[in-house]
């Protein structure tokens, strides 16, 4: 029996995480990482929607004074527009499909029970 052949085809299984932070924040499980990316994208959607709401308020009432922001000047409006576009493109349109669904569904579709560790270390928090 050749031990080299067996070692090359052996599946490396990690020990089960013992704490909540180890399981859900610094996880190596592809499903947990996919859910992390999905919730990161969902959070970015809400931030982008809030920026869009501020821009729409400015379009409806140009001279309105908002609490904590004051009057929205043209420079502030352009800043809101740029931040909204950047967040929606880079954190929503790229994070949710590639990071979220790719990490969650791709290993299931190709029939892998355990995803290799070098791919799983690309989690958003680890």
Instruction: State the helical fraction.
Output: 55-70%
Radius of gyration, whole Å: 22 Å
Sketch the topology as an H/E string, one letter per element: HHHEEHHH
What is the end-to-end distance? 39 Å
Strand residues, percent: under 5%
Uncertain segments are none
What is the number of beta strands? 2
Average predicted local confidence, pLDDT: 81
Structural class: mainly alpha
Q: Number of helical runs?
A: 6
Q: Globular, elongated, flat, extended or rod-shaped: what is the shape?
A: elongated
User: What is the strand arrangement across the widest sheet?
Assistant: 1-2
What does the largest sheet look like? 2 strands, antiparallel
Number of domains: 1
Overall description:
The protein is mainly alpha-helical. The protein has one domain (19-115). It is built from six helices and two strands. A two-stranded antiparallel sheet has the order 1-2. Helix 3 packs antiparallel against helix 4 and helix 3 runs antiparallel to helix 5. The longest helix has 31 residues, at 30-60. 13% of the residues are buried. The mean pLDDT is 81.
Which terms would index this structure?
126 residues, mainly alpha, 6 helices, 3% strand, elongated
Short summary:
The chain is built from 6 helices and 2 strands, in the order αααββααα. The chain has 126 residues and is mostly helical.
